[in-house]
Design goal:
There is one protein chain. By secondary structure, the protein is α+β, with helices and mostly antiparallel strands. It folds into two domains: 34-123, Alpha-Beta Plaits (2-Layer Sandwich); 154-263, no CATH class. The protein is built from 13 helices and five strands. It has helices at 9-20, 49-55, 58-63, 66-70, 94-103, 119-128, 135-138, 153-164, 166-178, 184-197, 200-223, 230-249, 251-263; strands at 34-41, 73-79, 85-91, 105-108, 111-117. Helix 6 (119-128) packs antiparallel against helix 9, helix 8 crosses helix 11 and helix 11 crosses helix 13. The longest helix is centred in the C-terminal third of the chain and has 24 residues, at 200-223.
């Protein structure tokens, strides 16, 4: 909650106006997506790995523009199960990310090695609801975030983000569950949440609360407008009552919407 600590009356008025103007959906911070190139023979350095990657994969190099190549960075080098090999985590932008993920395998030292989305990418992409997009695109997309206890409307934001990107959440959890670098506890928790996301009950509750909170949120924002008059407020309340009644009475429609969401 914003604290009104200004002594200046004008500044205090501006703060009150900001509080009354409603809440905004959170925006992702714009972290780059990542991939892991697995099982690469030791001997490369952070300075020459990316250059060698494209030198040994001409087809991949031709599909990625030069400006995208220049933005690729080595995020980390992790030990592989084979003591003579390493796993390279690369941070990169949209075009390069999509091409590497689509390729699935690349050649390093005449050996075919796997390329997978790094689990951090899955979590980041849950926030922006898509995978392999540019940082500029991320800035304009609604994101899922922890609900603050001081702002009830965050529940509406969270339900909307989860409802609109349900498939992306499932994909993120699937990546975490299949990732051997995760701890057993993390993988077990991911498996439990993933199972719940395939339950019809979960889909019904999410669809129901998304519709319900959307009506409340829109009405609340309208009532906070500075030029609100009593007649408009009465109409808004009457409309809200009708909308809530329709949601509670149309369970069959909610079930259909839930099934469509779960099957996406």
């Amino acid at each position: 909650m914003e604290v009104l600590g200004e002594t200046n009356a004008e500044e205090k008025f501006k703060s009150v106006t900001r509080l009354k103007s409603g809440t905004k959906v959170g925006r992702d911070k714009g972290r780059k997506p990542q991939v892991m190139v697995k099982g690469v023979e030791k001997g490369y350095t952070k300075e020459n790995f990316v250059e060698e990657l494209f030198k040994q994969n001409k087809g991949l190099s031709e599909r990625i523009p030069a400006e995208n190549k220049s933005e690729i960075e080595v995020a980390s080098v992790r030990p592989a199960r084979n003591e003579y090999k390493e796993n390279w985590v690369l941070s990169l932008n949209g075009k390069a990310f999509r091409e590497l993920v689509r390729a699935k395998r690349v050649t390093m030292d005449l050996e075919s090695v796997r390329v997978d989305m790094w689990p951090n990418t899955a979590r980041n992409c849950v926030n922006c609801e898509r995978t392999g997009i540019t940082e500029e695109e991320r800035k304009h997309m609604a994101s899922e975030m922890k609900c603050p206890s001081t702002r009830w409307s965050a529940r509406a934001d969270a339900c909307e983000a989860l409802y609109n990107s349900y498939d992306a959440f499932k994909q993120a959890l699937e990546h975490i569950v299949k990732d051997d670098t995760q701890t057993p506890k993390t993988k077990a928790e991911g498996t439990g949440i993933l199972k719940k996301m395939f339950n019809l009950e979960t889909g019904i509750m999410l669809s129901f609360w998304n519709d319900l909170l959307t009506y409340f949120h829109k009405t609340s924002k309208s009532l906070q407008k500075e030029n609100m008059d009593i007649l408009t407020a009465i109409n808004l309340y009457e409309s809200l009552i009708k909308s809530v009644t329709s949601v509670t009475c149309q369970l069959a429609v909610t079930i259909i919407k839930s099934k469509l969401m779960l099957s996406s």
